[in-house]
What we know:
With 373 residues, the chain is α/β, with parallel strands linked by helices.
Amino acid sequence: MNLEGIELRRVAMPLVTPFRTSFGTETTRDVLLLRVVTDRAEGWGECVAMADPRYSSEYTEAAADVLRRYLVPALAAAPRLDAHAVAPLLTPFKGHRMAKAALETAVLDAELRAEGRSLARELGAVRDRVPCGVSVGIMGSIAELLDAVGGYLAAGYVRIKLKIQPGWDVEPVRAVRERFGDEVLLQVDANTAYTLADARHLSRLDPFGLLLIEQPLDEEDVLGHAELAKVITTPVCLDESITSARSAAAAITLGACSVVNVKPGRVGGYLEARRIHDVCAAHGVPVWCGGMLETGLGRAANVALAALPGFTLPGDTSASDRYFATDLTAPFVLEDGHLAVPTGPGLGVEPLAAVLESVTTATEWIPLGGPGT
Ligand code: SMG
Ligand code: MG
């Protein structure tokens, strides 16, 4: 496959409702999309970096910068390209995993479209639909939270995740349990908002039978998570701390987590995400697919990954209408609590041209091939 060029495209997608976490409130998703043009096919990659470096050190402008300055030019050095060659070519450049993941995904999509194979099949999917959870933001009041959770349960979501932070943890969990019962699959996500000194407070969540608590402590505090896991009975799940298959293996060996949230963007791409799945499966550690408020393009790839055998817990792979009034692709629709795994070549979905144009705020073409490209 010969690369002709790469388009960087910025789109602004208004969210149907503000999404508040322990690190900030999102009202519009500012997304960087990559379109790789090769001599055989085109491919799309969605960069999951947020507009500001609050979830992780990456942010949209930085991703665009490192792509145009270092990552895209590094691919030009390879005469013939396939997706498995991308990560090794990018290794000299530290970090920037979300930017790298978007580039690898776009190349992989182009390659699979050229060969007529789906991403799900390429990754080793064993299901044609995946059960879906929903991540519920921090609200202004318990009444507002109960309304939101009630709406999502009525829509069919099979698992609820509550965002928590100090001052919004035990009471919202108690209220949801009291209103909706002990049968609801329920988990919480702190996005690093606590310290090990809060261990006794967090043990107050133990009686509620949560599936897991996600990333309670700082992303670098792997040992702290191991200590916390000895004190609380709620299973500890890591998100921000897991950046590679190697770090997943280390965290599991140290006893820092018994569940892993897999986000391909956070770990440098779908190929590394699959390696994390494999490492976790070998250790008997369940995984689930995280979300970064993706458009239909990123969602298609996440749903393919979530169909692998080790993804035994419902993911943050919600339907399009949980995020956007109009998605970039044909909408993903919840059916009986599940989303269908796309079966077409590559991601199996296309951006809708008119929608894409209407939300685009900037485009930039980086030529890579011979003269005239
Ligand atoms: O895509 O449904 C989604 C969002 C899921 O809660 C979610 N993601 O830490 O897991 C997480 C957060 C990170 C993004 S918050 C803006
Ligand atoms: Mg998380």
